[in-house]
UniProtKB/TrEMBL annotation:
It is found in: Cytoplasm. This is UDP-N-acetylmuramoylalanine--D-glutamate ligase. It comes from Owenweeksia hongkongensis (strain DSM 17368 / CIP 108786 / JCM 12287 / NRRL B-23963 / UST20020801). Residues 311-424 form the Mur ligase C-terminal domain. GO terms for molecular function: ATP binding; UDP-N-acetylmuramoylalanine-D-glutamate ligase activity. One of its GO terms (biological process) is cell wall organization.
Length: 447
């Protein structure tokens, strides 16, 4: 691209700033535009780089004079600025597509409704322990574009959301992992599951026969929509069924077997992360690492010694015999299903937030069996009340996190779990799920 080529970056969060850094390095004429308020740390970066930007509005003259637009994933197509850009016929791409155009290393990209953060961090941990040149990016760590701008790596392990995949036109991971598909973000996909699934399968769209696609053979939605997509890469399944399949499978002794080219590569019988969902995550990361030629010892060491992730079934404190658990990262119903399935003691469940078209019916059996009370934490809790009335003894509302934690503490008894697992997005009362989880932990420590 020549220096005269103008690029507009829409959104000045982590991905937008990363795209701006890379765009400047590649010689673009850069304009950064955010319809909201830009965080001070990102303003500081823009000022240090002497990049022009605006906040609180979009200067359409600047944006529509661009040859390329990089759109941050949080901006929906129905936004007025996007409608104007589309009408003008300007090319729109995501930050991961932009980063890919200048990336020299191999990409391991992980998507899915649940488990993608854990699988991403596990895979990165294995590669890092193996001593290879690897960067972590996407929805966790730095933005992909910023990592590419910073230095060249042999491998990039990326957590990728459906929103980021919506605006790719060449992004080609060497290994694509689809953890699962469960209803999430349906408000962005016209409340049609097939649209959301198509977005997830886009991770395979530009792969070829030299690449690999790891998928969950036990996930009904993945199997349902897989035939609708042309997948050129080599598919490898992960399954908890005791069947010797090419990919990864679990035998009757709970030992994971990894099989490639019909040859047994290794088995793993000690996992640091417990629970059915984490077995899938460990399988996917172990299989991906083996495909990259990582030695068995590094894979085993990482999977056996990996520490739990903040905001995902994270034990916080035990207070008077009650265990407080932070699962703020559970922003959809299926994530909360896994959390409740892991509860083996009576549970007070703190739930609620921005409902994304949730179907709570899959939780009914677990709630009736395990939950003694629900504390609703959100601006509008009417749907939670409607869905769970009569399924638990008590459903009450809390105005903020401090009140929710105090309520749970007062009604709890020795041996109870106090579980924050919202099943909803956080943007009504919190900045993001991290902010929500940290407020929960602070409130528990203040008891």
């Amino acid at each position: 691209m020549s220096i005269a080529t103008k690029i507009s970056i829409l959104g000045a969060g982590e991905s937008g700033i990363g795209a701006a850094i890379l765009a400047q390095k590649q010689g673009f004429n850069v304009w950064v535009s955010d319809g909201g308020k830009i965080k001070q740390k990102y303003k500081d970066t823009l000022n240090d780089l002497d990049l022009p930007y605006e906040e609180g509005s979009h200067n359409m003259n600047e944006i529509l004079s661009s040859q390329l637009v990089v759109k941050s994933p949080g901006i929906p197509e129905k936004a007025a600025v996007m409608k104007a850009i589309r009408e003008a016929g300007i090319e729109v791409i995501s930050e991961i597509e932009f980063g890919y155009r200048y990336c020299k290393g191999k990409i391991i990209a992980i998507t899915g409704s649940n488990g993608k953060t854990t699988t991403t961090l596990l895979t990165y941990d294995i590669l890092k322990k193996a001593g290879v040149s690897v960067a972590l990016g996407g929805n966790v760590g730095n933005s992909f574009a910023a990592s590419v701008a910073e230095s060249d790596h042999d491998y990039y392990v990326l957590e990728i959301s459906s929103f980021q995949l919506d605006d790719i036109n060449s992004f080609k991971p060497h290994i694509a992992i689809l953890c699962n598909i469960t209803p999430d973000h349906l408000d962005r996909y016209d409340y049609k599951m097939e649209n959301y699934a198509a977005s997830k399968f886009a991770i395979t769209k530009y792969q070829d026969e030299t690449d690999f696609f790891i998928y969950n053979k036990d996930d009904a939605e993945t199997l349902k929509y897989m035939p609708q997509h042309t997948i050129k890469s080599k598919p490898l399944a992960i399954t908890l069924q005791n069947e010797n399949t090419e990919g990864a499978w679990l035998d009757e002794t709970n030992t994971i077997h990894i099989t490639i080219n019909n040859q047994e590569q290794m088995n793993i019988n000690e996992l640091a992360l417990q629970g059915k969902h984490n077995t899938y995550n460990s399988m996917a990361s172990g299989l991906a690492s083996k495909l990259l030629g990582i030695r068995k010892e590094a894979i085993r060491e990482s999977l056996a010694g990996f520490e739990s992730i903040e905001h995902r079934l994270e034990p916080v404190l035990q207070v008077y015999g009650m265990q407080f658990i932070n699962d703020s990262k559970a922003t959809n119903v299926n994530s909360t299903w896994y959390a409740l399935d892991n509860m083996h003691e009576p549970t007070i469940w703190i739930a609620g937030g921005v409902d994304k078209g949730n179907d709570y019916s899959q939780l009914f059996g677990l709630v009736e069996k395990k939950v003694k009370a629900i504390i609703c934490l959100g601006v509008d809790n009417s749907k939670l009340h409607q869905e769970f009335e009569g399924k638990v003894d008590l459903i009450i509302d809390a105005a903020d996190m401090d009140e929710a934690v105090r309520m749970a503490y007062k009604m709890g008894e020795k041996g109870d779990n106090i579980l924050l697992s919202p099943a909803c997005a956080s943007f009504d009362l919190f900045e993001n799920y991290e902010d929500r989880g940290r407020q929960f932990k602070a409130a528990v420590r203040n008891l």
